[in-house]
Design a protein that fits this description.
The structure is a homodimer.
Chain A: H1 3-27, H2 34-37, H3 39-43, H4 63-70, H5 73-115, H6 147-182, E1 191-195, H7 205-216, E2 221-228, H8 231-252, H9 256-264, H10 270-296, E3 301-309, H11 312-320, E4 331-334, H12 344-347, H13 350-382, H14 384-390, H15 395-398, H16 401-409, H17 411-421, H18 423-432, H19 439-463, H20 468-475, H21 481-491, H22 493-513, H23 515-524, H24 543-560, H25 567-588, H26 601-625, H27 629-635, H28 637-652, H29 654-658, H30 662-672, H31 678-688, H32 712-715
Antiparallel strand pairs in A: 1-3, 1-4, 2-3
Helix pairs in contact in A: 1-16, 1-22, 4-25, 5-6, 5-24, 5-25, 6-26, 6-28, 8-10, 13-17, 13-19, 17-22, 18-19, 19-24, 21-26, 22-24, 22-25, 24-25, 24-26, 26-27, 26-28
Organism (chains A, B): Trapa incisa
Subcellular location (chains A, B): Membrane
Protein name (chains A, B): CSC1-like protein At1g69450
């Protein structure tokens, strides 16, 4: 790829970004778009839905940038919880890493690279006609002493990254503990989930739980809630909810009905319709209540229960110790937050769960294989000659410079990015059938899956473009990995630089512009009119989509910084954009749905350590290839030291992210001892883990307050 | 190797075994050998040291076989603890496996193998002139349907072994729990070891421990013992003990001194000598006492302490939970039995421990490499032509049939065995500097090391005889492992059959005869005369030497049963011998030194699963090599199922071997509640973990009772 192709791509994307920024600055001020751009403020009542028109509303203003910039970490913590803070720290961490690497890369390595002439001398007269490869390490002559600059850079950046990793892990650990100390008593702190409960002949699960914990934890056991199979009920409730929404809509806009019936597609008399819906809803609710009372009998009990204790320490003790002589009975787990419980999990049988796990593994493998098809096609695009062989009729078009530049510089990564968009939802679905008991655990697992999928399918598939079997064969022959990496990785430098510009820049600005919700609202607006009393659904940030994306750019940056330092400025711009935009989104758009207390950080740490070791492997290969064997030998201690450092961090910090220590729990328990609200809390605790599907439901209009149904049931279904 | 060579080897070894049996039957009845053959009975006072001479003492009698045979498992349990029971069950388990495999192998596979003619038809007229290879799978024609017999045998034996593994794991788990329930209160049940204790400025470790546990475990904390650095003290005590022994010897045999001084090598006047020794001993003890009082001051404190609680459950809770906010402080571990503590561990500093670990890894690698030298030489012996090339002058000798048969059939495995003898002590030493806090943990780790060393250095080094690099390269190319195994493993069948006969048979009979202790006592007897009041040191069985040996024969049997079924009868004879001989040794020779409660079993389980999967890999290779690709495809589910089974067992049984459950502990605690001896026990508990080097020592004769020094100090040093 030539410099000019890259510049084309940069030009297109800068234009797009500006367009998005300006559009956003204007559109966000239109009340009609409040639901898309400030749903959070709207839900909190901080923004009025309709305001009077003024001219200012049509002029783009960067006020939101200032607001986002001024947001402090403490404010963010109180607004969106610790997870949001951790998310912003990922970006901050990456910024610092690449600022450091950028200084080294641009001011030292780039001049060194251009000074070589292994490939060709740089044509300073006509910069844009140079191949991007002259800015990479490939341009340095074999055996040149200049490679020691790269060697030193590898050592310096590794040391800096490890120092930062330690600092961040330490900081987030302390934040996590402080967050726990500052928290009010929460049901999940006092509760554990017990699974595989054995039941005596003729007894019920409830009796079994009561007997066991009264026998072995008499002084601390408080109460329990047995989990029931509620798949049927949840379906019924969903039906009732839909019906109710329709009904409300009909009642709220009596006059609009006739005009709008075009959307429903048929003409009916309104009154009849309302009566009919009301009747239907009543029937449904009757049905529901019967089903509920049936489920409440012992027949549909699952062998699992939420067991509550009178102190956090007692709950933690029960969680940490194997309870029964038989290790596969009375299995204890930490309870998630009540609204974080993934209830459908409990409805499936043991065999089904086991099979789902197998299915998930197979599905992940299949997805990986199928995904290679678009990747290979995309790789063909960067190679124009190949394309001309495949589609000879394109020859004439491809000779136009601009077209060929767009095709090589912009199209490949755009196509890739579109395909990548579908991966996070698929991975989330796969995780949800894999057997996690909470939404947060599902998201964490999906986050990991998406990350490794991206690294495998974008990084390795692009680098070793070829069949799956070829890729696998490389990893089955471990001693040749460095040399193969050394040949293939630098060759793809230009593709990844373009990838950062297209995928990175566009994804952040489209995140700001919220393309899909915006289009959605545009399409829906003429058909469905919201009831102003309707509860607005505030979205939560999909960590499993955004964290892997940022981390993947981290992997690219760390592996390429010494090969092709030109990638760094583009990365830095991406990170700066992300820094401002995500802060803005936390302020205006996303509300937290659950709180893991920073449990996403270990994923970041592991991925960074992986990138470092990958970078070292590439360095070993490169220095061998460039016939500087002393340097490649001297790199060897680096991965070992990095892994030792990782081992230390695992010991020093990871346990903090898994469970709280005895010291923490006992101190927190003592603090509560004098709290007068505790008896009330314990009373609420008894029913905190009630399956929402079993709570009384009242949608039908034969009640006084129509607008206050027990909506709580809707959140967790 | 020809059948006749194998028969020669069998002949020699049968002769040796008989010789050992007869010698043992006679020698064990001679009072002079009681210390070698019945030290345990002697120490327990069940056998008088000297009895009158009678003729019966000179006639070999098999009475001991009957006695050993009649020993029940309960008797063994009460005599030698659960570890001995587990040890005997390893042999019983192997016996059952190979009896089943033996029936299939001898009655089905062996006739099938001989019926083939891939190599050569069997010469039934002159059986001894056949090569052993005609009895192996190599003799079956490629693509023959007969291979389906082998295929079925692989499935049948895998199923049977897994069933037995499950049964044994279950049985031993229940035994372990029953053993715990039946145990009296033991200090280790109420105690944990706490390490990495942080110390406040100016404070002592003891204060720190007291404050922490009084703060966080006020209701259950009982007492603690801070560990001190006692290397110097232990050296002094050893010196004092040596001196004391000499002194006692001089005083006990006043008249013999002049005759025996030959051994001391110089002439002196006895009285002078005694006086001199007494003076020296007194000085030494004075020195010791000063050192003790110095160590007792805070200066030599290690940041570790044994902390005792008032119930087993409280101790287990403290052990299972992370105590401090900082996960690398207040690290808790289960305490070993007081006499099992490996005190020298605490004397070394953190850096030293860390370095030792690295040294151990390097040492293990070096040992593996160096050990290949004898293995390669031994392999040369089985190949006579090679030997003639190396040592041409041997040509004339090697043409003698008997000599060549001895060299190919007997010598190779004898040499290997001699080299193998030195491995267990080396591995034990390496484990002891690796950082374990108890003798039992050291032995368990050494057991694992010896096992994998044996499998790697005997099995793989023999199979892939070649350089280390060649072996490593095979494992770096995983997809070719089965085919390489399929070529190499059957080729070594005759060597391993001979190995079972020489190494197996000889090792058990020399275990019975106790060759080294016997020779030792022969040599020492004329020089040193034991004081009858001297405490007799009863040996304990070196599990790290004997368990890997039996397990390695298990690996051989499982991998070779379908390749060369001829190995099975020899294995069965070996196991029968071992069954009787080890029971006899537990009765007469070995006394348990510590009790792990059956923690050696998981090693057995893992090694068996490994052999099964290795066997499957070989089967895949063999069926591919023999062009029966359907069979090799159908074998694939087998390793997967085996590993799934292993995973289930890890969940179902392994936790039982790591820690006791809350249920078990609470029940046991409740049982003690009405026990009147508990206050007394708790009193003793306070000093149970006192470093023996710090106990008052009194050897010098200026006390009334000279023969009652606090010998306890000697056991753990």
């Amino acid at each position: 790829m030539l410099v000019s192709a890259l510049l084309t791509s940069v030009g297109i994307n800068t234009g797009l970004c500006f367009l998005f920024f300006i559009l956003y600055s204007v559109l966000r001020k239109q009340p009609i778009n409040y639901e898309v751009y400030v749903p959070r403020l709207l839900a909190e009542g901080k923004s009025r839905r309709r305001s009077h028109f003024n001219l200012e509303r049509l002029i783009p203003s960067p006020g939101w940038v200032k607001k986002a910039w001024q947001l402090t970490e403490d404010e963010l913590l109180s607004l969106s919880g610790l997870d949001a803070v951790v998310f912003m720290r990922i970006i901050g961490f990456s910024l610092r890493v690449f600022a450091f690497a950028g200084v080294i890369g641009i001011f030292i390595l780039l001049p060194v690279n251009t000074s070589g002439d292994q490939l060709t001398s740089v044509d300073f007269a006509d910069l844009t006609n140079n191949s991007l490869d002259v800015f990479t390490i490939s341009n340095i002559n074999s055996g040149s002493y200049k490679l020691w600059f790269h060697f030193s850079a590898v050592y310096a950046v590794t040391a800096f990254v490890c120092y930062l990793l330690y600092y961040e892990y330490n900081y987030i650990s302390s934040k996590r503990i402080a967050f726990f100390y500052a928290s009010k008593p929460q049901p999940e702190q006092f509760t554990i989930l017990v699974r595989s409960i054995p039941v005596a002949q003729g007894g019920s699960v409830s009796e079994s739980v009561d007997n066991f914990f009264r026998e072995y934890h008499p002084s601390s056991y408080l109460s329990h809630v047995v989990v029931r199979r509620t798949r049927k009920l949840r379906n019924l409730i969903n039906d009732a909810k839909k019906l109710y929404k329709r009904l409300i809509h009909l009642q709220s806009y009596p006059n609009e009905n006739d005009q709008r019936s075009c959307c429903f597609g048929l003409f009916r008399r309104r009154v009849d319709l309302v009566d009919q819906y009301e009747k239907k809803l009543e029937d449904l609710e009757e049905n529901l209540r019967m089903e509920q009372s049936e489920v409440s009998l012992a027949t549909d009990e699952v062998r699992a229960a939420f067991v509550s204790f009178n102190s956090r320490y007692a709950a933690a003790t029960a969680f940490h110790m194997q309870q029964s002589i038989n290790p596969i009975q009375w299995i204890t787990e930490e309870a998630p937050e009540p609204h974080d419980v993934y209830w459908p999990f409990f409805s499936s049988s043991f065999m089904k769960k086991w099979l789902s796990k197998l299915v998930v593994i197979v599905a992940c493998i299949l997805l990986t294989i199928l995904f290679l098809i678009p990747v290979v096609v995309v790789q063909g695009l960067t190679n124009l000659n190949q394309l001309e062989v495949w589609f000879p009729f394109l020859k004439s078009i491809l000779t136009i410079t601009f077209v060929s530049q767009v095709i090589t510089g912009y199209l490949p990564s755009l196509i890739l990015q579109l395909f990548l968009k579908i991966v996070p939802p698929i991975m989330e679905f796969l995780s949800s059938i894999q057997g996690y008991i909470s939404h947060s655990a599902i998201e964490k697992s999906a986050c990991n899956k998406v990350l490794w999928f991206t690294i495998w399918n974008i990084f390795f598939a692009t680098v070793f473009s070829g069949s799956v079997l070829y890729q696998v064969s490389i990893f089955l022959d471990p001693k040749n990995i460095p040399s193969k990496l050394a040949v293939s990785v630098p060759a793809q430098a230009s593709f990844f630089i373009a990838y950062v510009v297209t995928s990175g820049w566009t994804s952040t600005s489209s995140e700001l512009f919220r393309v899909i919700p915006f289009i959605g609202s545009l399409v829906m607006r003429p058909c469905v009119k919201r009831n102003p009393d309707d509860e607005l659904e505030v979205p939560s940030i999909p960590y499993h989509r955004d964290i892997p994306r940022i981390l993947f750019f981290g992997v690219l940056g760390i592996t390429y910084f010494f090969l092709a330092p030109l990638i760094l400025p583009f990365l830095l711009i991406y990170l700066c954009l992300a820094y401002i935009i995500y802060r803005n989104q936390f302020l205006n758009v996303y509300a937290p749905k659950y709180e893991t207390g920073g449990k996403f950080w270990p994923i970041v740490h592991n991925s960074t350590i992986f990138s470092l070791v990958l970078m070292h492997a590439i360095a070993v290969g490169i220095f061998t290839l460039k016939k500087l064997s002393l340097a490649s030998t001297l790199i060897f201690p680096l991965p070992i030291l990095t892994l030792l450092f990782n081992e230390y961090c695992r010991k020093r910090f990871l346990p903090i992210f898994i469970a709280y220590s005895a010291e923490t729990l006992i101190l927190k328990d003592r603090e509560d001892r004098n709290d007068h609200s505790m008896p009330e809390f314990f009373e609420r605790l008894e029913t905190a883990y009630q399956d929402p599907a079993l709570l009384p439901i009242q949608y039908s209009p034969h009640t006084d307050d129509l607008n206050a149904p027990l909506i709580s049931s809707s959140t967790a279904v």
